[in-house]
Amino acid sequence: MNPTRASVVPSSPRHRVLADLALPVAVISGFFTVCVGVLLLINHGRVPSQDPLKSSVLLAAKERLHADPRNEALKQEIRALDLQVRTQFFRHLDGNSWGAWMLLAGGVLFVVSAGKVFADREKRPFPEPAAALGIPVPFAGAAAARWAVAGTATILGFVLLLVALASRTPVPESPAALERLLAGPGGEIAPALPSREEFLRNWPHFRGPTSDGVCATTNLPSTWNGETGEGVLWKSPVPAPGFNSPVVWGDRVFLSGGTEAVREVFCFDAGSGALLWRRPVPTPPGGSVRKPEIPEGTGYAASTVATDGRRVYAIFATGELMAVDYSGRIVWSKELGVPENLYGHASSLITWQDTLVVQFDQGHTPEDGKSRLFAFASDTGRPVWEQKRPVGPSWVTPVVIEAAGRTQLITLAEPWVIAYDPAQGSELWRAQCLGADVAPLPVFAKGLLVVLSPNKHVVALRADGQGDVTETHRAWRYRDYVPDIASPVTNGELLFLLTTDGTLVCVDVEKGTGLWEQALEMEFNASPVLAGDRLYLISTEGKAVLVAAERAFRELGRAELGEGVWASPACLDGRLFIRAKDHLYCLGAPSDHAP
Amino acid sequence: MAAGCHRVGGWLALLLWLVLFTAQAEPRFPPPDFQSGYEIPPLEHPAVRALWQQYLDVGLLIAALGLASYLVLKRRSRKAVVGLSLFSLVYFGFYREGCICAIGSIQNVALALFDASYQLPLITLLFFVAPLVTALFFGRSFCAAVCPHGALQDLVLVKPVSLPRWLEQGLGILPFVYLGAGVLFAATGSAFVICRLDPFVPLFRLSGSYTMMLVGIALVLVGLFIGRPYCRFFCPYGALLRMASSVSRWFVRVTPDTCTQCRLCENACPYGVIRVPTTTPVPPAERGHERRRFLRLGLALPLIVGLAAWVGVQFGGAASRLNPKVSLAELQLVQQSDLPRTNLTTVEALALSRANQSATTLLPEAVGVRRDFRLGGALFGGWVGLVVGLRLLGFSFWRRQTDYEPDRGGCFGCARCFRSCPQELVRLGLASAVQFPPANIPSPGPARPLAGAGSTLPGTSGGSPP
Lengths: 595, 466
What we know:
The structure holds 2 protein chains of 2 kinds.
Chain A: H1 5-8, H2 13-46, H3 56-67, H4 72-121, H5 130-133, H6 142-166, H7 175-183, H8 196-201, E1 214-215, E2 232-237, E3 247-249, E4 252-258, E5 263-269, E6 275-280, E7 306-307, E8 311-315, E9 320-325, E10 330-335, E11 350-352, E12 355-360, E13 371-377, E14 383-389, E15 399-403, E16 406-413, E17 416-420, E18 427-432, E19 443-445, E20 448-453, E21 457-462, E22 467-468, E23 474-478, E24 489-490, E25 494-498, E26 503-508, E27 514-519, E28 529-531, E29 534-538, E30 543-548, E31 555-560, E32 570-572, E33 575-579, E34 583-587
Parallel strand pairs in A: 1-28, 18-22
Antiparallel strand pairs in A: 2-34, 3-4, 4-5, 5-6, 7-8, 8-9, 9-10, 11-12, 12-13, 13-14, 15-16, 16-17, 17-18, 19-20, 20-21, 21-23, 24-25, 25-26, 26-27, 28-29, 29-30, 30-31, 32-33, 33-34
Chain B: H1 9-21, H2 51-75, H3 78-95, H4 102-114, H5 122-138, H6 141-146, H7 148-156, H8 165-171, H9 174-187, H10 193-196, H11 201-205, H12 210-223, H13 229-233, H14 236-245, H15 264-268, E1 274-275, H16 284-319, H17 324-336, H18 347-355, H19 359-394, E2 405-406, H20 422-427
């Protein structure tokens, strides 16, 4: 009998004790490790179900809160629930952590003891003469190894090909393919930035290209009837509510609409009224944005969209901002956060050259320091500049004017009128003359910037100042009738103010003296537009009054739409586009603009 | 085998103590979305490891490499190797959490080579170079007792099971494939996949990807019976070390004395790297047959490489999706199309929203990345084809070898085979020479390749020490 290895290297008594202990320790530690592992697996499976973000109870409570946003008791209940599910969740994570330590300790013990058991039980062969073990044959096993390598390589190749087939990317692989993709189905490359002339020919944002409600066209219709269809070129239902006004570029009319569930941009064919596309705001990272508490009188889509002829830009009361190209594809989108605004965000967007300007005033008082003015690159959404504003909330849209040999971006909000350089965002001048609740846009005529502070006064400022011009650049002040919603309009000589309760006032722009006022016995929210020498005033009941823009009141006619109107009209090429409560109307002479 | 493991109670206590002090990753969780006036605390970033600590890591690495070489080649002590392995596991594994490591440094080096804007940290470069230089002189000392991945697998091996030789050869090409893939993704600036798919780092950290943690646990379980499964069949750095150590100046020998041809070392080696003596003359018919096979495979080699390169190009398209620019561009395209939108709660979607890049700027960059992947995929495929082709060619080599010796490229230097050798026991005075009768040893002859020159092919075996 051959001697064994044990006989060659004798074992000590300590060795034998360890050998006796090894097996029970290995069994116990192995069992312990398996149990801990199974418990960890079970615990891991339970953790996702306790994810606070997916808690059905919590989600249901939040849904109830959406329906009843002022329910303080429900809010407290949600807070308690939130804390409870989080506590539970993190308790499980702690359990996992402890389990991992125990698994590690059990595993180490098992490995050591099992190693000892196997080492002691191993039967060690004793050396034999080589002849007795056989002589290796040349290339023995080479064929099998060759097949194994070839087989592994073949399987690998198939796997890689399968991955290649199953996971294709829509990103083109060559610049030529990219150009085709960018050109779109029709092969049309996105147009370059439109010229200033083209910009002025269209109605690119709220109150038109010059933000003053003055139409480039003078042949607007003078009569229409929504019930009989007289003067109505087309009428299309608007799919979602909103108080924003239409903007028109070429043959396209853009609107936005929104509810708590979805905010969208709509594109209509200006010739036929057909809805060409609608594009909802993309779901943001994290699921959904927080929904603000907004009065019905403002809604989610009070801000008018803006376009630069290449893209249309929209902002909503949720702070969601997006750019959509003319085929309805989202170019970029971002969230500015829900603004703290008592009445809901209503400032509209404007574009200036290749930037999009967003006035984002919020807070309760000017001291809150939460108001901002943003300029984003219109093609990418990249922030170009941002200005912190020392103002409270506002509902007014910024205006770009050319004054004193420079381009000025005029913003209004309590208490400051502030002019900025639209290219850099640097402040040019400011004047303290505004009270709370500023909504009407300013107008610029005869070198004077006319601003309205509702329920306070109308002030004309010379727009050639520097720094704080409060005491130095006020030309005149008018206090008799001050609109709080509708923006004024001017023909350069005369300023027309339209109050919500229906008083139309004419003021001399240069002197600031009232020339006449006329009670129209209607309620107005829509800002008037001026086409040639005619003012178009449209009441909340859809009744229109045409007034001559003269130094004495003269009514030119009336028309009836038959549907409530809160948005300001847009005009282009002899057509008047009016967003009513449920429909978008295009008014004009049928002979010129038959669909 | 596990002889060194059962006396490591003190080491284990130290290990557990250190493990308790390793940082635990806090679970990341969204803050409450319900407004209650709660102020979210500012994001805190872990402090950057001090430079002296980083140099300490390098110093310890180099010292451990030197010590491992000494312990394996000179001291020939399995116990000492186990001790050093435990230290490496605790320090480089659990304390340093497996990062920085030589395995992952491949990607930093690849990125630095292909992206001029990336500055390769000196520390990383040293971690990459030091084990390779050591391998050129002393073999795989890094694998022996310095790499925490290797140490973990080596220490948990309790009952080694031998794998069929053909299976080892077949799976042996995978580290080279993984190496190529890791370089491809790193060089294109797409992802450090070797780090992402590291199965042991989540174990060292007791935190991380659940899937990779399960893979790590599975590898540890497999490693109870199959020695170092990750090192042998996956480790990309191991592929480099295999090539370097196959030409090393000094290398492991089972015995410095005369081999008695007892074959005990074959049983002792859990990694199947002991090469048997090959002194039998090759019959002339078989010699001719192998020569013709060698020529045919040599002629087919360009075809194999070309075919693999074509597969690599196809794969490159799919692989490019791992690149952040391509994935962002995809999200852009999806958002702009009428297709249903993807789940926007993904990390990529967050990246898109933060990237503030429009399609007009992002898409050309993504197209450039795809072009890089086309070229990179071809190179990757070609590399794999070359590895496969050379390995197939290597099987036609027949080298004469007189003793049982470890394959220089494949030997991890675990030192298990030393005490299995009767000559070593005699040399150490643990046994007397009379207990081991001399074997009937055939007369040794010079190494002689059957076809072509001596082989230093990646992954080929059978090379005998000079």
